Hints:
With 93 residues, this protein is α+β, with helices and mostly antiparallel strands. It has helices at 10-14, 68-78, 81-84; strands at residues 23-28, 31-35, 41-48, 55-63. It has a single domain (10-78), classed as Integrase, DNA-binding domain (Double Stranded RNA Binding Domain), CATH 3.30.160.390. It contains three helices and four strands. Strands 1-2-3-4 form a four-stranded antiparallel beta sheet, with helices on one face.
Amino acid sequence: MGNTTKQLSATQVANAKPRDKEYNLSDGRGLSLRVKTSGSRFWLLNYTRPITKKRANLGLGTYPDVSLAEARKVSVRQTAPSYFSYQPPSLFF
């Protein structure tokens, strides 16, 4: 049985404050919110490239321009196996 991550709430995302170092808030399935020391926040999707089997990060946009619901929607599309077998990741907002 794999590890499970509790999904983020909209309140947790909105209340994320800057710290001395950058940190990530994980939402599960490779989606995370990176909080910079300047206070800016942006979405990252960590996925495995289908051919090379190496891990890569895909930026999904900044918060609040991209909401939690939109980031989840894009991450589900990006991680679909049939999608990755035909073309590299791109955004569909």
